[in-house]
Amino acid sequence: MRKITKTTKALILFGAAMIATAGVVQADGHLGKIKERQEAMKAVGGGIKIIVETAKGKRAFDAAVIKSAALTIKTNLEKAGPLFPEGTGEDSGIENRAKPEIWLDEEGFAAALKTAIAAADNMAGVAKMADLMPALGQLGGGCKGCHEKFRAPKK
Amino acid sequence: MKRKTVVLFAGLVVVGTAVGLFLSRPRPLEANVLPQHNVDLANGKVMYDAGGCISCHKPIKGADALLPSGGSQLKTPVGVFYPPNITSDKATGIGGWSDLQFVNAMQRGISPDGRHYFPAFPYTSYAHMKTSDVLDLKAYLMSLKAVETSSNKTTSIFAAPMLRRGMGLWKRFSLDTRVFKFDRSKPKSWNRGAYLVSGAGHCNECHTPRNIVMGLDFSRHLAGGPHPEGKGKVPSLRGLKKRKRFTDVADLNSALRFGEIMGYEDMSSGGMGDVQTNLSKLPEADTKAIAEFLFSLQ
After folding, report:
1. Between 1.10.579.10, 1.10.260.100, 1.20.120.10, 1.10.510.10, what CATH number should domain A2-150 receive?
2. CA angle, A38 then A44 then A46, to 5°
């Protein structure tokens, strides 16, 4: 009898520890995902900067540079997409700007992301300066389309 | 003794109600404020885009997205509003309104049937517009296609009729009806920018914080504050250069005209995306004027 009690106690303790660990891992996982997607979006921003500087004439047009920037944007958008699991929004306790609309309108979010990825893909094919501005309109519009609905204002 | 108290109390209630009703009564403008005016449709469109009318009077899904037939939800912490149809439809829009009725709505927050509007409709800013600009805006709205709508829902907020009347008291503290005053010591373009920001553009409604009676606190003019929808902040528009938000007037103008298309990533969230889309339709001289004025705020 006594032995069973001990085992039970041990089991309870073990169980509790597991649950606690799971909680920590979960929170850790969320934090990790938020950080990862923020890094990905920073890389997207880096790519945009190169293209915008070219459009503004602050940087000479170079199709290879544009292509590489566009592909950086595309890859990182694709990477960021799955890094928005439910529970990682602005109300998660971890500071970030993901609005609840992402999960209230999952289809809309996926569609907005898809539009941006397609625009990045289109940008990668820009071969001359004359085509840059229209492609940038589409790409920047892609960023805006998503941020308008799904990104909260700064805290 | 007891009876005396009851009578006294009843008397106070009656007097209090009478005073409240008197102080909160709508005080519309009279027809003599309307100037002799030749309508300028192009200017009306500028006012329409500067005001971004379409953003709040957004049509419901399925209706023509370019016409302000209203009915979409405007969510605020006090409740949901349904901005009405402002197309020229006679029955469900504003096609039957006189010029004076329109001016009273825009600049005094009073409906054609003589009731106060809630200031979710920013007449507190439109009050600073020149009446001629308001009339041009009306002419422009009348020139758009009429859309017939079915819903006449206005708001979900609690005790709306009583609060509506109470707005009359609120207006006594918070509705400044002075038309924008030209500052002769500043360039014309600066004044144009300041005029668009304070009047039609109604930038203060979000970018200037509010005092305890929810009136705009101009001692902190355009200094940013809590977001009116309840979460997050609206940025300050002061010291844009010092805070390294924009390098110069041209940079800010580019942000207003292109927004995130030119990589200005903070021009999209919190409702600014819609605002920027509307501003991009203004003549470049006007966005530049707005940029010049904002950039001058220290």
Report:
1. 1.20.120.10
2. 105
**Architecture in CATH for domain B188-295:** Orthogonal Bundle (1.10)
Cα distances (angstroms) measured from residue B243 to each of B248, B287, B288, B289: 12, 21, 20, 20
Nearest residue of chain B to residue A50 (CA atoms): B263
Please, are residues B108 and B28 in contact by the beta-carbon 8 Å criterion?
yes
Number of H helices, E strands in chain B: 12, 4
Task: State the Cα angle at B124 between B122 and B129, rounded to 5°.
Answer: 95
Partner B contacted by A108 (CB < 8 A):
no
Structure tokens at A117: 């990825």
- B166 contacts chain A (CB < 8 A): no
Nearest residue of B to residue A44 by CA position?
Answer: B263
Identify from A41, A90, A144 which residue to disrupt to test chain B contact, counting B C-beta atoms within 10 A and taking the largest count. Answer: A144
Whether residue B82 contacts residue B120, with contact meaning beta carbons closer than 8 Å, is answered with no
Question: Tell me, what DSSP letter sits at residue B283?
Answer: -
Which tens digit of pLDDT belongs to each residue from A93-127?
899 999 999 999 999 999 999 999 999 999 999 99
The complex scores an ipTM of 0.82
Q: How many residues does chain A have?
A: 155
- Cβ neighbors of B279 (< 8 A, separation 6 or more) are B49, B50, B52, B256, B257, B287, B290
For the record, the structure tokens of A98 come out as 């993901």
B positions 247-286 inside 8 Å of A (CB) = 258-263, 265-270, 273-274
CB B275 within 8 A of CB A152: no
Q: Where do the structural domains in chain A lie, given as residue ranges?
A: 2-150
Cross-strand bridge partners of residue B79: B76
Separation of alpha carbons B239 and A154, rounded Å: 18
Q: What is the pLDDT of residues B9-51, one digit of tens each?
A: 899 989 989 998 999 999 999 999 999 999 999 999 999 999 9
Chain centroid to CA A49: how far? 18
Count Cβ atoms below 10 Å from residue B189 Cβ, excluding itself: 17
| Residue B267 in this model has a pLDDT that exceeds 80 | yes
Domain residue ranges in chain B:
28-174, 188-295
